[in-house]
Amino acid sequence: MRIETLAIHAGRRIDPVTGAVSEPIHLATTFERDEDGGFSRGFEYIRDDNPNRNSLEECMAQLEGGYDAVAFPSGMAAIVAAIEALAIEHPGMVLLPDDMYFGIRSLLNETQFGRKLDVASVDMTDLSAVERACKEHMPGIIWAETPSNPLVSIVDLSEISRLAKSVGAALGVDNTWATPLLQRPLDLGADIVIHSLTKYVGGHSDMMGGIAAVREQGQHLDELRAIVKHRGAVMAPFDCWLALRGISTLPARMQVHCENASKIAAYLEAHSAVTRVHFPGLQSHPGHEIANKQMRNFGGMLSFEVDGDRAEAMAVVNALRIFTRATSLGGNHSLIEHRASVEGPSTMAPESLLRASVGLENVEDLLEDLDQALRVISPKP
Ligand code: PLP
After folding, report:
1. Residues 93-129: pLDDT tens digits?
2. How far apart are CA 74 and CA 211, in angstroms?
3. pTM of the full structure
4. I need a labelling partner for 326 at 20 to 30 A (CA). Which of 37, 216, 307, 315 fits?
């Protein structure tokens, strides 16, 4: 089956009791034992297993082309578990990209787990810099994020995988911004892929979840399962159900996100009040060729730098009427944020940069909204 069909059918079954075409939400915390004390129906206790979680995991494993997938209550929980699980067979340093989701930097600075990690960071778009970092640090794990947050840079996953293999490192990839519809890192050599399901997969800014999909059976998969069961990092059944429902419409939604973002990026690139647009669909983007090679489309995320500084960027955000001032991404509503103020003093985002999650509204309305907002700093379109 093709991925659009898998998005609707993988992991789903008609309810055997009622014939319901949408799986019921199973809130039961415990399940009846057989007379001999066994669990022939496969379920014992909600922390171990839940039908909605199983369906979500099966579906995401198939979409990512993985052996299996393990759900977590958030994207961050999936990232922490993935790093811990990979470190069993691949101890040592974790090599991180210098542009990545800010939550990982906060994890490193603000938790005991993070402070204990041995980490180095590198510009992952620069393959010779990655090669040098590999030789210098001999990392156990390389962590990649592409497109990256917030600069929307593109990492060549096949090449990073080759470099990882050359030093015996495992490769983990955060595929949240691309989704399996646009990019499948396991096919390109990654060992583990994570998602924040809170974003495009859920798709409506109303649920939270995470998932780690693995290429192969092994100790890292067992560890992911053990983290869920014994540390209790369990995704709730209703959130699993919402995520699975989101996946059904993910292919159709991604198409509109991508089309809208492409049109907006082209408009912004031609605008006199915009000095730079970060969107891999633009020919001018340094990662355009790689994105063309490894992605099916260019995604719904873009950032742009306005002509000015923080004050001008804030003025534009505050003048927008349809884009909502809010963090996060991947939902039906268009969102925009001044990333430097969201990330705080240690940010690497330029003060003039705005990050937009382009939603599913009519793109003409979004363009008109940007047009009137940019007039606040430049009367010329
Ligand atoms: N990975 C990326 C790329 C993200 O953008 C985010 C959140 O913004 C996360 C991970 C963390 O996800 P969650 O908020 O579900 O923990």
Report:
1. 999 999 999 999 899 999 999 999 999 999 999 999 9
2. 8
3. 0.97
4. 307
